[in-house]
Design brief:
The protein has twelve helices and 19 strands. By secondary structure, it is an alpha+beta fold. The chain has three domains: about 120 residues; about 110 residues, 2-Layer Sandwich (Phosphorylase Kinase, domain 1), CATH 3.30.200; about 220 residues, Aminoglycoside 3'-phosphotransferase, Chain: A, domain 2 (Alpha-Beta Complex). The strands form four sheets. The chain has an eight-stranded mixed sheet. Strands 2, 3, 4, 5, 6 and 12 form a six-stranded antiparallel sheet that branches. The longest helix has 22 residues.
Length: about 475
Amino acid sequence: MSEAVTHPATAGPGLLASLDPLLRDWLPRQRWFAGKGRPVTGFTPVAATELLPAGGKLGLYHLLVQVHQPHPPVQGTGGTGTAPAPGDCYQLLIGVREALPPRLAPALIGHVTEGPLAGHTVYEALYDPRPAEVLLEALRTQARIGDLRFERDPHREIRPGLVSRAVTTEQSNSSVIYGDTFILKLLRRIVPGVNPDLELPLALAREGCPRVPAPTAWLGAELAGQSYVLGVLQPYVQGAADGWELALRELAKGEDFSAEARALGRATAEVHTALARALPTVTLGHTQLRTLVDGMLGRLDLAAQAVPALGPYVPGLRSAFEALADLAAEGRTWTAQRVHGDLHLGQCLRSPAGRWSLIDFEGEPAKPLAERRMPQPAVRDIAGMLRSFDYAAHSVRPSVPGWAEHCRAAYCSGYAEAAGRDPRTDPVLLRAHETDKAVYEVVYEARHRPDWLPVPLSAIRRLASTQPT
């Protein structure tokens, strides 16, 4: 193991103040910024680390900043939500140059007019190969730079000098590919604690599960006695096809996707089985199921207030949840375990050899970290994938009759082959989780993509009238 390289590299005072007016404009325009629709009123520095001194041709700063925004209005109160509130903490990598070359124009944040960087141009550094290489070298040498801790698996080699390129299709996080060998995922919205995006792949690697790329290295920080996971470096599956894009291509050609869905079901089951071996499981009895069902019912009530189109279906949807509570009251129990937490086609990769892998174990980023780390029935992941097939089927015109239904059946059959149990044999549990997912989708689409609202509403109609046996 190479010895860690330690640098005292805390950035000087005044840095964030000089960037403040530029970040107020730039941050809300980033796809990974969660506070859209509310103005940024200020920042509090959490940590600022100088990775490359700004006195040269190129400077690089790593920032953790807490963003202040007005409180969102509370539904039904008529409040305006104008009181400023400390909000989310974000990870930023700020490059500094006297002037940007044309190739970096899309990365521009702005021109600094005062403070320690006055007269310089600042930009999103991940688009620039040199700053991205600094991160890889720090991981390779297990550096300690200010509050940052760069760690790696001592049994995995990181070759120096790999050429980087930013992935430009990210949403809730950002990624950099190094020489078709590694991919570094940098988390944008940062919370203290054990992040499942590192925790679960490490656990699966210890179990020898080949369905999830094993972490090669990771970036973290220790701040005020709390640990933060900031990024994870994993092997890059060269030539892999994203499950969502692959499904859409096959749909556009009118091709059957059942064989791939079955293989994906087997992959999901293998991951669930390995997670159940690696981490504790719990038994859900009447009390725990009542809490689970109450959460589903509460989300349904809030969704019906937010989206009136749900109103006619609420009684049928409530029956899906109450049927689960009724089984628990009769003494039925279920096993809960650690799961992916946000499984859909876009979280799956198929290698050129046809092997499926699961990625992005962060869970739903909007949920608290403690909730994302709670054991859940494995069917929660299955329900997410079944909904994803439905979304894919509605994304291509002309539609292919029966495509989603065939994929759903094949996926469950593949899962049963590897897990020894078919999720369709527990229809009440499956219906409740699929209903909960569809209710979430209705609210999301109504707020962000109204044109897509008919997709989850069609599932709502089906689920509200289903009577599982």
